Amino acid sequence: MTTVEAPAKQSFVEPGGIEAIPLERRHGSPWQLLATWTAPNLEFATVFVGVIAVAFFGLGFPQAMLALVLGNALGALSQGILSTWGPRDGVAQMVLGRVAFGTRGNILPAGLNTVMAGLGWFATNSVSGAFALATLTGMPIWLALVIIVVIQVGVAIVGHNFVQAFERYATVVLGVIFLVAAIFALLSGDLAGGANGGPAGFSAGVGGFSVAMAAAFGYAAGWNPYAADYTRYLAPTTSRLKIGLAAGIGNFVSCTLLMAAGAAAATALQFGDANPTDLFTSAAIMPVVVGDLTLLAIFFGAISANALNIYSGAMSFLAVGIRIPLTLRRAIVAGAFGVVGFFVALAASADPSGSYENFLLVIAYWIAPWLGVVLADRLYRRGTRIAPFLADDARYVNRPGLIALVVAMVLSIWLFANQTLYTGLLVAPTERFAGGFVADYGIGDLTPLVGFVLAVAIYVALVPVFRPGRGAPLDPSGAEEPAHVDAASLT
């Protein structure tokens, strides 16, 4: 059996926080993950990754697509793997991180994801949705932001089941509109050319390719720290293969299609300081009616993405271990993030292109080494129980995980980061534009690759030294029900 009947009656707003989901409350099908990880990518932020690969990273359309496909494939693969971890213990992804980093050590990655998800991604997507609504209606950007924030927060506050249902319906409606928009974008572009009708190829060298690939990975893998959040309600007996395929395929296909549309549009138009949403939906790319529908889809696509960002951002905040002894603590935290995120989004709206490029790379800078640690740790614990390490009162310590994460992040960023905010020690100074096109990107941005490899190597090397607790053999049923996972439940 891969499904369990839902309880007869549930409260409208999902109660509680990050406690483990008991077996009697497990329900759902693994194939619902196709919609869960398709809908949030049907937004302009995804399109813009393709735009910057051509317009800012100097790649022709064919080279950009190769970089984007590789980056998306890696992010989707890890999304599928992490999604299979939710049903066994019934807890969120950042709670599972307590095993790899220790109870207190997990505060760092959980805190990072709180900021990146609840504020960073929330602001990024809110800006693109607000620009679309402002373009469509003529209203001021601040008012468009207020409207989109209120709707997003409302969906996230209600909770898991409503979020899943919203994503299912959004996938169908948004999927049709963006598919049509993507077809027109591909038809309007020069699929053998480069930016704004320029030459195809590696105008910025191999470095431009590595930066584009890192940006695509940063986007697709940006969902990795949420993966188990949306599978923890599934029964432990649910097929791991089906879970991995549904999550991975949903992520990969939606990202690749919309990034292709963005890359094609960048070969037809000059994307500079102008509103990129206006350009993508302009008459030069698609008919006016399709453009207006696409603007509406961009608005609702931002809501689809941010419903997950706020929900999982709240889960990460609670995973830090902060005690909020209220029944609706998760919902309250989600609402608070919406208020703060509004002001962050308002500030980011002044320079959407520059802010987004830097944000995509920063996402990959921390997710890659985090991913290296959790994957290496999971391999170390294969076939063992991890429930005792998840409790708030476990005081479990795993020094190799925290050391590997910090050292890998610091070294990879210090030596290899390549963006407008900071250039790594081993990255030659770069000249971004010459004659309207990117001229040089040096060795590009190898930070995610180096960070991942370093994290795995350091963790594997330190495990024999510190010998972190490994756990007793796992029960043949493969299911665990951790106790005292939520700090609010402690007395």
Structure report:
With 491 residues, the chain is mainly alpha-helical. It contains 16 helices and two strands. The protein has a two-stranded antiparallel ribbon with strand order 1-2. Helix 6 packs antiparallel against helix 12 and helix 7 (141-158) runs antiparallel to helix 13 (329-348).
Quick take:
61% of the residues lie in helices and 1% in strands.
| Anisotropy-based shape | globular
The overall pLDDT average reads 83
Beta content comes to under 5%
Report the uncertain regions: 1-9, 431-439
Total helix count?
Answer: 16
Instruction: Record the strand order, biggest sheet.
Output: 1-2
> Rounded to an integer, what's the Rg over CA atoms?
22 Å
CA(first)-CA(last) distance: 37 Å
Strand-pairing-aware structural class: mainly alpha
Q: Profile the largest sheet.
A: 2 strands, antiparallel
The tally of beta strands, per DSSP, is 2
Percent range of helical residues: 55-70%
Order of helices and strands: HHHHHHHHHHHHHHHEEH
Key terms:
mainly alpha, 2 strands, 16 helices, disordered N terminus, two-stranded antiparallel sheet, globular, 491 residues
Describe how the helices and strands are arranged.
Layout: H1 32-36, H2 44-55, H3 61-83, H4 86-89, H5 93-101, H6 107-137, H7 141-158, H8 160-188, H9 205-220, H10 240-268, H11 276-280, H12 288-319, H13 329-348, H14 352-380, H15 399-416, E1 433-434, E2 437-438, H16 447-466
Antiparallel strand pairs: 1-2
Helix pairs in contact: 2-3, 2-9, 2-10, 3-9, 3-10, 5-14, 6-7, 6-12, 6-13, 6-14, 7-12, 7-13, 8-10, 8-12, 9-14, 12-13, 14-15, 14-16, 15-16
